[in-house]
Specification:
Keywords: Dioxygenase, Oxidoreductase. This protein is α/β, with parallel strands linked by helices and about 120 residues long. The protein has one domain: 2,3-Dihydroxybiphenyl 1,2-Dioxygenase, domain 1 (Roll). It is built from 2 helices and 8 strands.
Length: about 120
């Protein structure tokens, strides 16, 4: 039986570009860095950047890594846009929270998620 998530990993084509994106654009901490495998600390969850498997832009479906913004989701979108991140659309609001999708430097699907205001 699973007791939790140990890590999430995503394939990358260019390790340095991917590390730069997660560190400089998203503001996360690089826990370890290598040509074939690097780890990013996302507030206790390890995101592995796997250079051993080929990355290709998503064709829909598959895993999505959701990040919780430090402040409002709208402020985070504005900050990421200023760093060159392109969003597929605007923030959408649902009964279970707000989301806005984007991709990392390697074409992996990411999103910002904010739970509903209680």
């Amino acid at each position: 039986m699973a007791s939790g998530v140990a890590a999430v990993w995503v394939p990358v084509s260019d390790m340095q570009r991917a590390v730069t994106f997660y560190r400089d654009t998203l503001g996360l901490t690089v826990a370890s860095e290598d040509d074939e495998w690097s780890e990013i600390d996302a507030n206790g969850l390890r995101i592995g950047l796997n250079g051993r498997e080929s990355a290709s832009p998503s064709s829909g479906g598959g895993a999505v890594v959701s990040f919780q913004p430090d402040g409002s989701i709208e402020d985070e979108v504005a900050d990421l846009r200023s760093k060159g991140v392109e969003f597929a659309g605007d923030v959408s609001e649902h009964p279970w929270g707000k989301i806005v999708p984007f991709q990392d430097s390697e074409g992996n699907d990411l999103q910002l998620y904010a739970p509903p205001q209680g």
